[in-house]
Amino acid sequence: MRRLFLLTMLLTISVLGACTSFAKSVIINDVKDLKALSEKVALDKPIVGSTLIIFDIDDTLLEAVSFVGSGKWYTWQRGRPTFDKNGNPVSINDKDKFNCIFGTLGTLFELGTTQLTQDDAADIFNSFDEYDRMILTARTYGFRSATERELKKHNLNLESEHLMAKGTGLEFALNPKLASRKITYKNGIVMSTGNNKGQVLIEILNRVNKSYEHIYFIDDSRKNIDNMEKAWKDSKTKVTLFHYTKVDKTVSQEEVAQSIASKIAFDNFLAATYPDTATAFTNGQCN
Questions:
Q1: What share of the chain is helix, strand, coil (3-state, %, to 5)?
Q2: How far is CA 240 from the centre of its chain?
């Protein structure tokens, strides 16, 4: 009888362990090649129709050609921890920060160009066309036009795979008190406006009435990976997270000098062409 009881307990623990493993997020760190996602999906063989594959944009699918306007430039401009190739911190003086960074960033997105993070990025992205796919970016909703232009230019187009009826979309705020940080979902692309990507994904899937057994998410930001893991930790969905680290995040003194020169030129252009805007930007009046 005792032996039967122990056997029953072991089987129960085994079943519970299997359920916990199924629901637990898996993080794959230091991913240098998008093929790691392909290899994992091929290994898992998830069911078509029950699988969602999600890509970030900046420094995951695409990267800026110029330092000014790039992901690492934005990080440095915001005064966040930034380092050179030797691991030394690269700080920024207030006078070298672009005024009204979000307005400036919109201009840079409109004028700037991007390149694929790796030559086969589009091929890998499009190899998952049998599964549901989504692009989930931290970019603000106001940058959609330039974002879609660059994605289409590189054959990264999800218009036909939008999870809603063609021509429809979503527009909402996670927090009604932060209406300026609204989220939009259209043409397969989520502009999350810096909101928590894990919470954004849950809200969107609830609104479109979709659920999945498997979700795969790849992003260059560790914060986004951690937020996604936390948001889905109690879900029955198996979430596999890839921290993509191929793109160089270090900042050189040459790049700093380039940004300083660009700021001077940009400020002079505004002062000569749009003096009222230049004065407003200088005074921090960004709206």
A1: 45, 15, 35
A2: 15
pLDDT tens digits for range 95-139: 999 999 988 888 888 899 999 999 999 999 999 999 999 999 999
Q: Is the dihedral of CA 204, 206, 211, 214 positive or negative?
A: positive
Alpha-carbon dihedral of residues 118, 123, 129, 130, nearest 10 degrees?
-110
- Return the amino acid letter for 270: L
What does R_g of the chain's alpha carbons equal in angstroms?
22
- Say yes or no: 273 and 213 in one domain: no
91 and 224 fall within a common domain: no
State both tokens at 44. 């898992």
Contact 181, 194 (CB under 8 A): yes
Q: What is the pTM of this model?
A: 0.89
Q: pLDDT tens for residues 250-265? A: 999 999 999 999 999 9
Name which of 166, 170, 168, 161 is nearest 205 in CA terms. Answer: 170
Q: How far is CA 81 from CA 74, 88, 91, 154, 262, in A?
A: 11, 10, 8, 31, 22
Residue 130 belongs to domain with CATH number: 3.40.50.1000
Query: What domain range is 108 assigned to?
Result: 71-112+257-282
Kindly state whether residues 129 and 147 are assigned to the same domain. Answer: yes
Amino acid type, 96: D
CA dihedral (125, 127, 129, 134) in degrees, to 10, reads -20
3-state secondary structure 198-228: HHHHHHHHHHCCCCCCEEEEEECCHHHHHHH
Q: How many CA atoms lie within 13 A of 202 on its CB side?
A: 17
CA 162 – CA 145 distance, rounded (Å): 17
- Any domain includes 13: no
